[in-house]
């Protein structure tokens, strides 16, 4: 890897597709950039954990409702068929 400095221009492209060239200027990262990056990472992780929690609650609620419904159907079936077991 080359030692790039702030202000250097770089160009990235695929040999078989030169029209997809990316041109950029190298900038120096500041401490505030790093703090912002850390903040974004923390927010992304928090969002991911919240989605997992919401999904878990949904699955639990769905399973509970299904089990309750199954118990009610079974109780009606027993009553309708006259079964006591």
**C-alpha Rg (nearest Å):** 30 Å
Helix and strand succession?
EEH
The major beta sheet can be summarized as:
2 strands, antiparallel
* Helix-and-strand structural type: alpha+beta
* Mean pLDDT score: 80
Beta strand count: 2
* SS element count, helices: 1
Low-pLDDT regions: none
Distance between the termini: 76 Å
Shape: elongated
Strand order of the largest sheet: 1-2
State which percent range the strand residues make up: 15-25%
Helix content: 55-70%
Topology:
Elements: E1 9-14, E2 17-25, H1 31-81
Antiparallel strand pairs: 1-2
What's this entry about, in short?
The protein has 85 residues and is α+β, with helices and mostly antiparallel strands.
């Amino acid at each position: 890897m080359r030692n790039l400095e702030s202000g250097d221009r770089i160009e990235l492209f695929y040999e078989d597709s030169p029209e997809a060239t990316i041109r950029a200027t190298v900038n120096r990262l500041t401490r505030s950039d790093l703090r912002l990056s850390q903040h974004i990472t923390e927010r992304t992780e928090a969002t991911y954990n919240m989605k997992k929690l919401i999904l878990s609650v949904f699955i639990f609620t769905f399973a509970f409702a299904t089990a309750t419904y199954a118990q009610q159907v079974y109780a009606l079936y027993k009553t309708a068929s006259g079964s006591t077991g």
